[in-house]
Amino acid sequence: MYDSNHVRRIIHLLTHLSSGEWSTAELAQRMESEDPEAGVTIRQIQRDLRAIELSGVPLQSTRTGKNIRWSIPREYRGLTPISITEHEVLSLHLLKGLLANFKNTRIDGDLQKLMRKLERIAPGSVFIAENLVADVSPGRYATAIADDVVHDIIYAIIDPHWDRVTYRSIHGGQTKTFVVSFCRLISHAGRLYVAAWHPTYKSYITLAADRIEHVERASDVTEPAHVFSERKYRSGRFGVYDGDVRNIMIRIEASAADFFMSRTWHPSQEFRMRRDGSVDMHLTAPLSPELVTWVVGWADVLTVKSPAALIRSCKNKVQAIEGW
């Protein structure tokens, strides 16, 4: 995972180096004036210059007395002089996550080239790798998300640390405050969620970003930063919601077998062919509202064989729909 301070420093260095000649001392002084709390040293600047060269950006050195001044050659066209703000970096991270939805489409080749360019400016990922929820449910309506909340969430993912969150419950609009480590954003068909680690529960939770009212860095928490495990997060839920984890068997009609077997619906899925061409899909997953909605949505080709609790939930869902 990338240090957000380092990312910002590299961006500022590229901006200065593309506009003129600088000594390492001058660069360190400029970085210090732009962010007094960063505590930038000449040695850090020297390491950054080496990293820039290793990335393929040529640096030109000019000796003036005892000092060496650095710049990016004016004739170099691989890097257009940039001026980019922190909020624009956050926007680029969101753009990278949205562009991933077009992977394996006709524009995949051009998309990969663009992604590599974006990676140089906004390295790393703040979105979960698998957008499974797009195949699971239709999503829910969302209200506006405060700019400062999105800002704090993304930087917490880029530079892992603990945050104290004020969250508005869906029941009664009550708020509660607790400490989490933000891990990944999840785009859920019309709503933005964030996967987070809850240190008290020792488990992952999923928060609707629009219900987060305030984020404040929890400097009093000394526990080491959490290391995100996407597999562990996904195994404990179906879609974005968790629940009582059970052994599930769903029978898929022969006409739809190839379609379901070609997709990843859950990390635990296993398929067993039957003589008549139908397939039994076995899952170890929670009985979440997402799972019920998903099963009912495919009711023409899916039949729940177990557990009984899932069968009842699906029947209740259908009866509620019929009651409309």
Can you offer a commentary on this structure?
The structure is a single chain. The chain folds into four domains: 68 residues, Arc Repressor Mutant, subunit A, CATH 1.10.10.10; 39 residues, no CATH class; 102 residues, no CATH class; 82 residues, Alpha-Beta Plaits. With 324 residues, it is an alpha+beta fold. The strands form four sheets. It has a five-stranded antiparallel beta sheet, covered by helices on one side. A four-stranded antiparallel beta sheet has the order 12-13-11-14. A three-stranded antiparallel beta sheet has the order 1-3-2. The chain is built from ten helices and 14 strands. The longest helix is centred in the C-terminal third of the chain and has 15 residues. Strand 6 and strand 7 form a beta hairpin.
Give structural attributes.
Arc Repressor Mutant, subunit A, elongated, alpha+beta, five-stranded antiparallel β-sheet, four-stranded antiparallel β-sheet, 10 helices
Provide the succession of SSEs: HEHHEEHHHEEEEEHEEEHEEHEH
Structure annotation, total helices: 10
Q: How many strand elements? A: 14
Radius of gyration: 25 Å
Tell the overall outline.
elongated
Low-confidence stretches: 132-142
Largest sheet: 5 strands, antiparallel
